[in-house]
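Dear colleagues,

I hope this message finds you well. In preparation for our joint manuscript, I am sending the Imidazole glycerol phosphate synthase subunit HisH (Coprococcus aceti) sequence together with its predicted structure, so that both groups work from identical material. I would be grateful if you could confirm receipt.
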Amino acid sequence: MISILDYDAGNIKSVEKAVQYLGEEAVITRDRDVIMASDKVILPGVGSFGDAMGKIREYGLENVVYDVVDADKPFLGICLGLQLLFKTSEESPEATGLGILDGEILRIPDAPGLKIPQIGWNNLEINPNARLFKGLPENPYVYFVHSYYLKAKNPEDVAASTFYSTQIHASVEHGNVFACQFHPEKSSEVGLKILKNFIDLEV
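The corresponding structure tokens are as follows:
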């Protein structure tokens, strides 16, 4: 069973449907006992960094996330869920994120002919050792919706990158912690394969 953390994020139902489509039981919950009893945990997210962290703390989920990570359960952050794994974001300078991974969340720089947020398909440069992308073709396309991006501190954490005005660390893997800036649940067959790889993970 996979727990999808419920803190009123907008893309929760689409993540649930994608996981269920792949034949895996999924539950949207903020119940600590249910989360800790699950095999894997997903932190989805759309919206602003500060508001999301406020909700996570309001619902008592911050310590649950730390406990999940400490228990070596496979954990997947999606879109804003990736950004929340870091301590700070330029979007909400007053807010403190989860601080599980090291890096910066920065605004995508303005560039001629490019619209911000980035909305649409972009291809990935994949680290060949990345577990989330096992079995995928070279440079697959996935679906992004974001104005802020990750610049990871540790190169070894970067599972995939893309380019949109600047080099963007689009996916990270660190131990049992995985995250994607893009939306696998909206990325057609490529996205379903990424989610299936997560479902099949053994950490």
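For the figure legend, we might mention the following. The radius of gyration is 15 Å. The mean pLDDT is 97.

With kind regards,
E.M.
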